[in-house]
Design a protein that fits this description.
Oligomer: single chain
Shape: globular
Number of helices: 5
Strand order of the largest sheet: 1-2
Strand content: 5-15%
Mean pLDDT: 72
Helix content: 40-55%
Largest sheet: 2 strands, antiparallel
Number of strands: 4
Radius of gyration: 23 Å
Length: 212
């Protein structure tokens, strides 16, 4: 027979006994109230590791329908914006209607060099924007906007599959594809870091909220 779980007076969940290295944890109860805190002597918010998942407490994590709708609408707009960017780059790089094709499978499919360039621009710009969204402080009532702009718009605006398709040809015809892959990957990470710093400057957390 399992022993009764150790509970605090306001926490409906047992203290996680399998996690010993965490300095603190915050777990949201079903009513969205903060239900459990464990602070070390002299510890401060943000001094520990990442909080455990609510699933460690046997919780079912549900995403509100309004956030799913926000991600859906933001993703649709982001995808349309990337298609528009591709058409702009294609028009700017091929004024006479000529195209340099990266062929795949003996010409059964192809990727335009302008498409690779547009995807690279989208990935760098989208990573910067996502970093800003992630680094900025958002009030709880603006969670829908954060979902729409972050995983929604930025997720739809950026793309990896097109560059991966071109990367499959790098050993035959396209050295530009691997250059775009490296620039997009490394540059994307740097753009995220820069974006988070900008986001914290644009909308810093309130005083006393601790490090994010």
């Amino acid at each position: 027979m399992r022993p009764a779980p150790d509970r605090t007076e306001d926490c409906p969940f047992p203290r996680p006994t399998s996690v010993t290295k965490r300095r603190f944890w915050l777990v949201s109860a079903p009513d969205a109230a903060v239900c459990h805190r464990s602070w070390p002597a002299g510890g401060t918010l943000g001094s520990g590791l990442a909080p455990p998942s609510p699933r460690e407490y046997g919780c079912r994590v549900r995403t509100p329908a309004r956030l799913l709708l926000a991600v859906f609408l933001g993703g649709a707009l982001g995808t349309l914006a990337r298609v528009w960017l591709g058409s702009v780059v294609s028009t700017a790089t091929m004024p006479q209607g000529t195209a340099d094709l990266v062929e795949l499978s003996a010409g059964s499919m192809h990727v335009l060099d302008s498409d690779i360039l547009a995807a690279l621009i989208a990935n760098l710009a989208g990573s910067l924007a996502l970093g800003i969204v992630a680094g900025a402080h958002w009030a709880p009532q603006r969670a829908g906007w954060r979902a729409a702009l972050g995983p929604g718009f930025c997720g739809g605006f950026t793309t990896f599959s097109l560059i991966a398709l071109a990367l499959a040809l790098v050993f035959s015809t396209s050295a530009w594809a691997i250059a775009a892959f490296l620039l997009g990957t490394l540059g994307g990470v740097l753009a995220i870091v820069l974006g988070r710093a900008l986001g914290r400057r644009i909308s810093p957390p309130p005083a006393g909220a601790g490090a994010r």
